[in-house]
Each structure stands twice: as structure tokens, then as C-alpha cells.
Amino acid sequence: MESLTVYGFGSFFSxxxxxxxxxxxxxxxxxxxxxxxxxxxxxxQIKSALPSADIVxxxxxxxKSLDFVxxxxxxKLENLSAESMDADVQALASRLSRP
Length: 99
Description:
The chain has 99 residues and is of the alpha+beta class. The protein has helices at 11-14, 33-49, 60-66, 68-71, 85-96, and strands spanning 3-9, 22-28, 53-59, 75-81. It has one domain (3-96): Beta Polymerase, domain 2. It has 5 helices and 4 strands, in the order βαβαβααβα. A 4-stranded mixed sheet has the order 3-2-1-4. Helix 2 (33-49) packs across helix 5 (85-96). It is globular and about 40 Å long. It comes from Sphingobium rhizovicinum. This is Nucleotidyltransferase domain-containing protein.
């Protein structure tokens, strides 16, 4: 079953003044077709729920090679699973919605 991890980075998460967007990183299992399609589906659902989100997608190997999480000081937000993607995305959107 496919899954991925969502990280947040940038001014929204570092306490910057009035960020204009929400920067998210989706780290999916591998560069195989199934994993990439799942990540693309997740990105579309997240973008629908959070229109101000800017979303980067990387495989686990790419994220590790680039040391993206550490360099961007990204924070782990949510794990999304194919089994519960709709509920997971809604939980993520609720968590990131600001009044």
C-alpha cells in the first residue's frame, strides 16, 4: 500500500510575518510509477484543500540525496496513506488552516 510523508517548511512554519503561501514537501517511497502516481494524486487533493500551498514532491532517495528536510528545516506534519488519503488530507488541511 502506498504512503508518503508531508513536511512543512518556509515562513509559514518558521513564524515569519504573514506568509503568503504554505510550502509543503511530499516524500514518497520511490521513483516507480505507482509511487509517483500516488504522490501526484495526493498533491492534487492537498492543492484542492489548501489552494495557497506550494508543493514539492521528492522520492525518499531524492530527499536524502539533497538533504532537503535538514537544509530546509522542514517539520514533519502528516503521513498520508492510500487507504485513508481523503481523511488524511482533511486532517492536514484542518491543521494548517489559519483563521
